[in-house]
Amino acid sequence: MKLLITLFFMFIAATAILAQDNNVSLENDYKNVAQKLLTSDSKLTIGGYGEVHYNQVLNKQTRDNAVLDAHRMVLFFGYNFSKKTQFVTEIEMEYANEVWVEQMFLQHKLNDYVSLKAGMLLIPMGIINEYHEPTTFNGVERPVIDNKIAPSTWREVGVGLSGNILPLSLKYQLYLVNGPSSYDGTKGLFKGGDGIRGGRQKASKSYMSTPNFTGKIEYIGFKGLNVGLSGYFGESQSKLYDKLDETNTALKLKADSSVVGISMIGVDARYNNKGLELRGQFYYTSLSNTEKYNTFTRTGSKRNDLASSMMGYYVEAGYNVLRFFEKSKMELLPFVRYQDYNLHNTVDANLAVNNAYIANVITTGLTLKLTKGAVVKADMDFAKTNTTNTRAVTFNAGIGVTF
Which of 3.40.50.2000, 2.40.160.10, 1.10.760.10, 2.60.120.260 would CATH assign to domain 2-21+33-402? Predict the structure, then answer.
């Protein structure tokens, strides 16, 4: 970890010295709302997104009520102190009664290739964690693996840099951040059924035992194609390290048992050409020290069931069938997505594989883009775990806006 930190700051220094100011022109450069605010010429800018969902489980044996949910309403505020120094924040209300801050950072441009960032940052893993506005993806709900493996929306406090290397057609992000909490002083927060998701600190009085490293690099040199490689490396955080007596071996061993090492790698690709939209994503997460962690965080005599590794992927294809109508400004995309995940890819010697944590989901539906920034969606989910022979079917519908 010390080597990563050293290399991180060496890269910052070298890039700041070597980079030169030039006009930037990037192909396949996707931008979320926060990134668009950073390119605004206005002093104060406002943006946002929102989505309302309808979810109905379809079951032949039982009748289920539908769930209607004002899932998210989000406001962005950006302020340009100068052409180089900017501030962005994202305030989200979920389920009509929970309020969170999802981003809040200060950015300072050293030149056209390097920007320093500090504050509450989105972890740059995969696609959805950064591009989660409802108009940026097909389907009413976000892909399952972006909930189970990379715990969207994943954000922590950190510092680092972002920018581009135009001669190589590359974009990059590199950050030092605090990690997810695996032990809050009373219980373990990582579980087999949702991995590290329960440990997201969300910058809410978060604490740090050791800094972690995350980064992403994207290739944008081929028309219509964006390919990303992302990573997250470090250790979980534990309250047992607070005021720890370094001379007390027993307490040190106890604290060490409450921590999990995290190495996560993601690969993603997006391709758009003449109405055809393709995208795919793969995650692999390796977790160390899980045998000790599962024993330490047991409930009564029952050990925890956190895996030693998790993996998942999805592939998706869609096509705008209205592109043949020249006068139509709307887009209608039938799409299909196949997802597969294994939250018990490997487990420690004292843990049996839970087949309920191994599943695949087929989602097919329609995305109607009424205009830029406004969509209506409908789809069907067909989910199956390794414990069942049939698929659970859910109908989803919703509206989404981004501005």
Answer: 2.40.160.10
